Fold this protein.
Amino acid sequence: MSFLEQLKFNSDGLIPAIIQEHGTGRVLMMAWMNRASLQRTLELRQTVFWSRSRQKFWLKGETSGHTQRVKDIAFDCDGDTLLIQVEQQGAACHEGYKSCFFRSVGEGDQAVRVTEPQLQRPDQIYRQG
């Protein structure tokens, strides 16, 4: 049985992909993939996702230059979630942070705190073109 045949895509043909920084284990982001974007990721060795809001493929970094070079692709025991380890260049988050998970909830009062520095302002991330 091939790798793709072992995966369980949801009713929309999508599977969640957790993107993790190779070497540190830091979770950078979560995005959706369909069979075609996963196949393209395997071919390019760069992450290609399916945008649910825009209904199209997006190569991570094609407008920002903040690319993800794929080092490893794993899947969970149920075959319904991917774990993709990458070498991240620049910010993974569209808000300019290394990780999309840059906010944490404080103890007791549940106040939100920013846990890492912003690498770049969002208005500086996307290339003009």
Notes: The first helix runs from residue 35 to 44. The beta strands are 14-21, 27-34, 48-51, 56-59, 68-75, 82-88, 103-105, 112-114. The chain has one domain: 4-118.
